[in-house]
Amino acid sequence: MDDKKIGLEKLIEYGSKEAIIQNLKDAGCSEDTIECCIDCLDCGKKTELLKRLENHRKGILCKVHEGEKQIDCLDYLVYQINRC
Fold first, then answer.
1. Average pLDDT, the chain
2. Strand (E) or helix (H) holding 48
């Protein structure tokens, strides 16, 4: 058994596999992403797992930035309306 597998087993011991799945659901991961992440855990693919999680994080952050831009637009519109 390689070191990566041992590290992933410790992660699973930290919480049950169900807890990890719930964490992924709470993070907004799709069923496909969750299945891939669990497969990575089961197969000891730490690098691939971390890459998938980082990609999901980047997607969420992009949505946050889009939302910030939308808020800025609304704030500017409210500012212009209040000036009248």
1. 89
2. helix 46-83
